[in-house]
């Protein structure tokens, strides 16, 4: 393998790049956005002579105050430890901070002046200006901020561009999402809007397309004739600490299922796109969403971990789910009858995200009742990224006994020298390159809200109750019962253990 491609390899246009982080004083900015920019810079995907970074928020602080705040979040990565201090000292001076409100002219006029001054200082490049606005802000301020950008801060050069990256949640239900989409859509073209869902930037989520469509092995198997259930699971072993106020307004369905898990489902279930062009892929994802039939109340289990309402920012009588299992059914030729079990929970026993494709039993199986468990194809998104296939094999020895084992591709073992990039790094780079494949299109967003809005309204009206579950547990027992009822067969006594490096 040669050198990784740099940004300049992809740039048809020349000129300077301004990355503007709106809400630069906030949590997402310091934990994800700036660190992602740092690592892109460190690896020379964005270069000092091309790029300048502007932080914008209401908080009054100097350039150095912001740089000092960010410093502790710019942590070294494997392979970058030795040059870390030098890398940080090259990166931080690229950041300038401008303070201002989100809905008044002055702040955005100052921002535009600062960007223009930088662009003029780079005039020798004689190219166009490229302006990337990253909204690390609560969605309530997206509309005024979009208006201000449109009025004062658009790229003014020929051949340059202005792009906006907006974070989830995009609305709270179908209606509010459509209102938001219209407000933003009146100001920017769809090609300028990058709706980020960071799960689409995860290494193993990006691998789904390759696995499914570059391996002959899976093509004839990937349908209702062979697959019994698909589970897409997200678990965190911590609660909503520090984000209780936000979380209580949204709940686990809006926070995780409607976006991250549904996007993964689309990639698992979609038909082969005509090509790898972003629009072809997004067309196929949309068809999946449009084929989902209404969710049945009896195929939903909600939970709330005990102690959730002790957070002072959460009302004592909150019914907001911190756990949900929801069965999604896709009415099309490939998936008729196959339940897609989406499951997500906070404050669970462990932290992991995975896709579990379970195959049907062998027809006329000659090994029954000795057989122990079904074939399962598991894609472990995090932690310990892996792809493994659970198989039934003969137990080594003189007797003809069967046991469960696996064909295992553990990334840590197989790709020891490879550093898996953070989702945000990849997605920011895609935005600079103008590649919208891993971003959510407006019609996809609408279709995703259409699926969940009726259920969300029932929850908001307390028509479906969240069952209590203990922190550190698997969630309510009823969720396991539901998964079993719709066809998932748990293999007891089998546990996949990620290989350790010492075992290599
Ligand atoms: P914060 O609450 O930290 O807000 C970011 C900044 O926005 C704050 O520093 C503040 O800056 C300004 N702000 C906060 N509340 C308001 C308000 N009511 N009106 C105007 N400005 C306000 O948010 P996060 O950084 O956590 O999240 C930003 C966005 O990213 C949100 O849409 C969130 O849902 C999304 N997100 C966040 C994740 C995370 O891990 N934090 C993960 C995934 C998505 P100032 O007062 O200085 O102007
Ligand atoms: C965010 C959610 O989108 O994803 C958080 O708002 C959640 O509640 C986070 O913790 C999980 O992301 P990851 O990449 O750590 O799985």
TrEMBL record:
Pathway: Carbohydrate degradation; pentose phosphate pathway; D-ribulose 5-phosphate from D-glucose 6-phosphate (oxidative stage): step 1/3
UniProt xrefs under HAMAP family: G6PD
A GO-annotated cellular component: cytosol
Coiled-coil residue spans: none
Domain (Glucose-6-phosphate dehydrogenase NAD-binding): residue spans on this chain: 20-207
Biological function: Catalyzes the rate-limiting step of the oxidative pentose-phosphate pathway, which represents a route for the dissimilation of carbohydrates besides glycolysis.
Species assigned in the record: Helianthus annuus (Common sunflower)
Family: Belongs to the glucose-6-phosphate dehydrogenase family.
Protein name: Glucose-6-phosphate 1-dehydrogenase
Enzymatic reactions: D-glucose 6-phosphate + NADP(+) = 6-phospho-D-glucono-1,5-lactone + NADPH + H(+)
Keyword Transmembrane helix appears in the UniProt entry: no
Protein's UniProt keywords contain Transmembrane helix: no
Keywords noted in UniProt: Carbohydrate metabolism, Glucose metabolism, NADP, Oxidoreductase
Source species taxonomy: Eukaryota, Viridiplantae, Streptophyta, Embryophyta, Tracheophyta
Record-annotated Glucose-6-phosphate dehydrogenase C-terminal domain positions: 209-487
Pfam families named in the record: G6PD_C, G6PD_N
Gene Ontology biological process terms from the UniProt entry: glucose metabolic process; pentose-phosphate shunt, oxidative branch
A molecular-function term among this protein's GO annotations: NADP binding
Taxonomy, superkingdom: Eukaryota
Signal peptide extent: none
Enzyme Commission designation: 1.1.1.49
């Amino acid at each position: 393998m040669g050198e990784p491609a740099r940004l300049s390899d992809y740039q048809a246009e020349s000129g300077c790049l301004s990355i503007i982080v709106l809400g630069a004083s906030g949590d997402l900015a310091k934990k994800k956005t700036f660190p992602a920019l740092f690592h892109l810079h460190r690896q020379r995907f964005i270069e000092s002579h091309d790029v300048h970074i502007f932080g914008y928020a209401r908080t009054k602080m100097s350039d150095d105050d912001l740089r000092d705040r960010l410093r502790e979040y710019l942590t070294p990565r494997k392979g970058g430890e030795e040059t870390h201090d030098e890398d940080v000292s090259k990166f931080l001076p690229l950041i300038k901070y401008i303070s201002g409100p989100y809905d008044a002219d002055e702040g955005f006029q100052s921002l535009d002046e600062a960007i223009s001054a930088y662009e003029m200082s780079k005039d020798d490049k004689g190219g166009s200006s490229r302006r990337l606005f990253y909204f690390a802000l609560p969605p309530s301020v997206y509309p005024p901020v979009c208006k201000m950008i449109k009025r004062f801060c658009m790229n003014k050069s020929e051949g340059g561009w202005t792009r906006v990256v907006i974070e989830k949640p995009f609305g709270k239900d179908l209606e509010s999402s459509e209102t938001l989409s219209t407000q933003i859509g009146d100001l920017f073209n769809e090609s300028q809007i990058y709706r980020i869902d960071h799960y689409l930037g995860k290494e193993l989520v990006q691998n789904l397309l390759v696995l499914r469509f570059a391996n002959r092995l899976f093509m004839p198997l990937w349908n209702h004739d062979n697959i019994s259930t698909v589970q897409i699971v997200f678990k965190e072993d911590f609660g909503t600490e520090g984000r209780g106020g936000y979380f209580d307004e949204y709940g686990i369905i809006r926070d995780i299922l409607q976006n991250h898990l549904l996007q993964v489902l689309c990639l698992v279930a979609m038909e082969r796109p005509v090509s790898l062009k972003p629009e072809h892929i997004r067309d196929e994802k949309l068809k999946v969403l449009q084929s989902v039939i209404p969710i049945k109340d009896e195929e939903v289990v909600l939970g709330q971990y005990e102690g959730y309402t002790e957070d002072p920012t959460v009302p004592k009588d909150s019914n907001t789910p911190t756990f949900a299992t929801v069965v999604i059914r896709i009415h099309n030729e490939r998936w008729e009858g196959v339940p897609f079990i989406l499951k997500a929970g906070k404050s669970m026993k462990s932290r992991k995200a995975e896709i579990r494709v379970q195959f049907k039993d062998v027809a006329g199986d000659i090994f029954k009742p000795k057989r122990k468990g079904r074939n399962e194809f598991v894609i472990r998104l995090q932690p310990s990224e892996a792809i493994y296939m659970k198989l039934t094999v003969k137990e080594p020895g003189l007797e003809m006994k069967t046991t469960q084992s696996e064909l295992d591709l553990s990334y840590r073992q197989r790709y020891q020298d490879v550093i898996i990039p953070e989702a945000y790094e990849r997605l920011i780079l895609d935005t600079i390159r103008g590649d919208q494949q891993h971003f959510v299109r407006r019609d996809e967003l609408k279709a995703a809200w259409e699926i969940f809005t009726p259920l969300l309204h029932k929850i908001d009206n307390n028509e479906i109750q969240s069952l209590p579950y203990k922190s550190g547990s698997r969630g309510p027992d009823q969720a396991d019962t539901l998964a079993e009822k719709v066809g998932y067969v748990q293999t007891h006594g089998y546990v996949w253990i990620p290989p350790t490096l010492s075992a290599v």
